[in-house]
Amino acid sequence: MEFTFIIMREDIADDILYKHFFLRLLNDLEPTVTHSSQDPGYAENPINAFHLIGRFVYKWPVVFANILCEDCTLNEAALHLNTTYQTVNRNIQHWPDEYDVHASAQALLRLRTFYFFDIEGAIDGFLFGEHCQPLSPSQALKLIRVAIDNNMLHEARLWCEALLARLPFTSFQDESINKMAIFRILATIYDKAGMRRRSTEILSDFTQLGHNEIDKEYEFYKNNINETDEKLDIPLYTNEYDDHYKQLCRNNRKPLSEISRLYCFLKPTSIPYYKAKVEIVNLKPEIYIFHDVISKTEAAYFRNEAKKRFVRSSVEFNEGDVGFNIDKSDVILQDEPGIVKRATHRVGLLTGLATKWSPVMLNAEPFQIVNYGIGGMYHPHYDSNEKRVPDVFNETKYPELRGAGDRIATWLYYLNDVKIGGATVFPEVNTRVPVIQGAAAFWYNLLPTGETDKRTLHAGCPVVIGSKWNKKKNIATKPDQYLHVGAWH
Ligand SMILES: O=C(O)CCC(=O)C(=O)O
Ligand SMILES: [Fe+2]
After folding, report:
1. Domain contains 450
2. Where is the Fe2OG dioxygenase domain (predicted)?
């Protein structure tokens, strides 16, 4: 769409008053837009996505404001542009705004805290070996501001230092962003972190140069140094619990001695002549990957059905909170006859567990289709703790769950591949299930006693490049309470 706007620029510009200003704007937009129009995966990269949203929020409205000026006579191209704009506006329900810029900045910062990508590289346009658009100093500054707003002081400092290192080499020129401006922000960061002595050290080179504001800031930091409680460093933006989970998102942490005991097998199923290709990725408790259990056509069907029904989910950003979904949209798909019912039935045939839904007794919950965008993740949680929280799972509140009991097992279909990130991880048992299109992860949530198996704590790691689709089936206890036999092989 952006490209359509750009290629019409000469025609449009012919007829509007502020021709030079307008052409300059479009020329400025063209290189980046051309890039995005030629690469279908452009917006799947978090840095490109940040650029794209920024263009929609800060640049395109200026273009439209000029085209739609009252004094202009509109030629055909301009009218066409206007129609396209109106259509897009209608289709996307809301034109991106500051909130979206903020959310995409948060996603990028969050990815840094998980995957430790190189910030200088990111400013230069490289992320995990992939090319992307370089960040301008003002974009880097925006990220730093969002980091400060979210109290991610350690990250904010790292971005400042990287920007200082790259400043002389960035291709974007912005006079207002110079070394001194960044040092002032660094001083604020140290001030917030309780390190005012450090703030004064940073500003000392810039005092007495006739900058009143800086002299005032320097004096403020100096007069407010807390001699007894001056902090020595900015703590890392993490906690121990999170750290383990984040490490697992970065790489496999299973000891070799355990890996060597894992294996694959062909599991007999209730489907005649069919044996499922199963990989066992953890022994205690058993966690399985079933390969090739959902076709590309089926997966595409589910993704499309979900897209039709999505309502945008809220974006939470509360590091350390457990059980929140971030940048994630989900939809429940009832067992309609046809493709949905077949996928449900298949889970039963492959696992031997009852998955049928009936008005009298529920054996499994309907499918929940989930889409995670860039930075989308699911904090560590158990799928099965509701039994102990009657308010959440009581059968009056959720009549469709009658007779179900707790969730004995989880079946998770992966509906696409994710370029980087998005693994499902089990921090208690150092297990990492990669996202593989057509595969499904499967595990039991309950111990034979009916209690939650604490080793099944699991999480969805943030998506770095791409978007992740999965489809989850929670399988209920009641019909299967005598069936929980563990290994089948
Ligand atoms: O997306 C994932 O990898 C995990 C999803 C999950 O745990 C859930 O939906 O309950
Ligand atoms: Fe889960």
Report:
1. yes
2. 363-479
Q: Whose CA is nearest to atom 7 of ligand 1?
A: 459
Q: What confidence tens digit (pLDDT) does each residue in 149-191 have?
A: 999 999 999 999 999 999 877 666 666 788 899 999 999 999 9
Tens digits of residue pLDDT in 95-146: 788 988 998 999 999 999 999 999 999 999 999 988 999 999 999 999 999 9
Q: What is this model's ipTM?
A: 0.99
Whole-number Å distance, alpha carbon 193 to ligand 2 midpoint, is: 36
Q: Which structural domain range is residue 144 located in?
A: 2-223
How far is residue 477's CA from residue 363's CA, in Å, rounded to a whole number?
7
What pTM was estimated for this model as a whole?
0.83
CA distance 293 to 275: 11
Find where tokens 């085209």 sit.
67
Residues 255 and 404 in one domain: yes
For the record, the structure tokens of 309 come out as 């029904």
The total domain count for the chain is: 2
CB 328 less than 6 A from any atom of ligand 1: no
Domain boundary among 223, 257, 281: 223
Which two three-digit tokens encode residue 340?
């949905």
Contact 303, 339 (CB under 8 A): no
End of a domain among 170, 188, 223?
Answer: 223
Residues 342 and 431 in one domain: yes
Q: Is 469 in the pocket of ligand 1 (CB under 6 A)?
A: no
Per DSSP, the residues of 221-260 read HHHT--TTT--SSPPPS--HHHHHHHHHHHS----HHHHT
Same domain, 201 and 257: no
**Do 225 and 197 form a contact (C-beta atoms < 8 A)?**
yes
Residue 412 Cα to ligand 1 midpoint, Å, equals: 7
- Could you tell me the CATH number of the domain that includes residue 376? 2.60.120.620
Task: Give yes or no: residues 214 and 273 share one domain.
Answer: no
Return d(Cα 147, Cα 6) in angstroms, integer.
33
Q: Are residues 219 and 249 in the same domain?
A: no
Residue 411 Cα, ligand 2 centroid: separation in angstroms?
Answer: 9
For CA atoms 76, 79, 83, 85, give the dihedral sign: positive
Co-location of 321 and 440 in the same domain? yes
